[in-house]
Specification:
There is one protein chain. By secondary structure, the protein is α/β, with parallel strands linked by helices. It contains 7 helices and 7 strands; from the N terminus they run βαβαβαβαβαβααβ. It has a single domain, classed as Rossmann fold, CATH 3.40.50.720. About 40% of the residues lie in helices and about 15% in strands. It has a 7-stranded parallel sheet with strand order 3-2-1-4-5-6-7, sandwiched between helices. The protein is globular and about 50 Å long.
Length: about 270
C-alpha cells in the first residue's frame, strides 16, 4: 500500500464491497490505512461477510457494520447510511463502488429495456442515491481536528468508458458518464461546506465482472491491447487511487475524474 494514503482517520462507508473486486479492495485498504470504523454493503450477504472477515483480519479491533441490500433501493440506501452515521457518530469517507458491467456487449437497437434499466438503476441511480445520503450525513458533522478544512470526502467509481466510447456499450458508457458529471456538480454545490467529491475512472480491472466468461474476456481484449501498458489493472491499484483522493494529500482536488487505465484514454 502506498505510503501517501496510510493515515486515514474517522469512519468510512463502502458500497459494492463484497467479493474480490474494487469495493472489497477499497474496504481492506481503508482498514490498513487506519480506519477503524467501516460500514460496508453489497447485494450478496456471503461475499459481504467475507469482506468483513478480511477487514477484521487486518485490524481485529475494527468496528465493521455490514448490511446486505440493493443499492438502487432508496429506502435501503437511506436507512443504511443513517445506521452507519448513528453507529459511528461520523461519516468521513464514502466510496461508491457498486456497479454492473452488463451481461455482454450489445448495440443499442438490440438492448432490452430490462437490461437498460438494470444498468442504470445500479450504476447511476445507486450512485446518486448513495451520494445524496452521504452528503446529508456529512453536512451534520464538524470537520475532524486533523483535517480542519474537510468535513468529508466522497469518491465515486466511474469508468474510462465514461470519458470515451466503446462498441456495444452505449448504455454502460452513458451510466458512467452520468457518474462523472454528477461528481462534478456535487463538487460545486458542496465545496463551501468542506465536502470534497471526486471520482476514479478505472480501465479494465481484473475482477469477477471482467473474468466471468470466455466471451467477456474476448470482448475486452481490444481495450487491453489498445492501452500502452497492455494489461488488466488490479483492484488494489484502483484502491490506491481512491485512498489518495480520500486523504489530506488531495485536499485541493475537487470534482476530478482520476483515470486509472494503463494509458487507454491517451490514445
Amino acid at each position: 500500500m502506498a505510503s501517501l494514503a496510510r493515515h486515514l482517520f474517522g469512519a468510512a462507508v463502502v458500497t459494492g464491497a463484497g467479493g474480490t473486486g474494487i469495493g472489497a479492495a477499497v474496504a481492506k485498504a481503508l482498514a490498513r490505512s487506519g480506519c477503524t470504523k467501516i460500514a460496508i454493503t453489497d447485494i450478496n450477504l456471503n461475499t459481504l461477510a467475507q469482506t468483513k472477515e478480511a477487514i477484521l483480519s487486518i485490524n481485529s479491533s475494527a468496528h465493521v457494520l455490514h448490511r446486505p441490500g440493493d443499492i438502487s433501493d432508496e429506502h435501503f440506501v437511506d436507512s443504511f447510511h443513517h445506521e452507519a452515521f448513528n453507529t459511528f457518530s461520523r461519516l468521513d469517507y464514502a466510496v461508491n463502488c457498486a456497479g454492473v458491467l452488463g451481461d455482454k456487449t450489445i448495440k443499442a437497437v438490440d438492448m432490452s429495456m430490462d437490461s437498460f434499466d438494470r444498468l442504470n438503476n445500479i450504476n447511476y441511480r445507486g450512485s446518486w442515491l448513495s451520494c445524496r445520503a452521504q452528503l446529508r450525513n456529512m453536512l451534520r458533522q464538524d470537520p475532524l481536528p486533523e483535517h480542519p478544512k474537510q468535513r468529508g470526502s466522497i469518491v465515486n467509481i466511474a469508468s474510462q468508458l465514461g470519458i470515451v466510447g466503446r462498441p456495444g456499450a452505449a448504455a454502460y458508457c452513458a451510466s458512467k458518464a452520468a457518474i462523472i458529471n454528477m461528481t462534478r456538480s456535487n463538487a460545486i454545490d458542496y465545496s463551501d461546506d468542506g465536502i470534497r467529491v471526486n471520482c476514479v475512472c478505472p480501465g479494465v480491472i481484473e475482477t469477477p465482472m471482467t473474468t466471468s466468461s470466455p466471451e467477456m474476456a474476448e470482448a475486452l481484449k481490444p481495450a487491453i491491447n489498445i492501452a500502452p501498458m497492455k494489461r488488466m489493472g488490479t483492484p488494489d491499484e484502483v484502491a490506491d487511487a481512491v485512498l489518495f483522493l480520500c486523504s489530506s494529500q488531495a485536499s485541493f482536488i475537487q470534482g476530478h475524474a482520476l483515470v486509472v487505465d494503463g494509458g487507454y484514454t491517451i490514445n
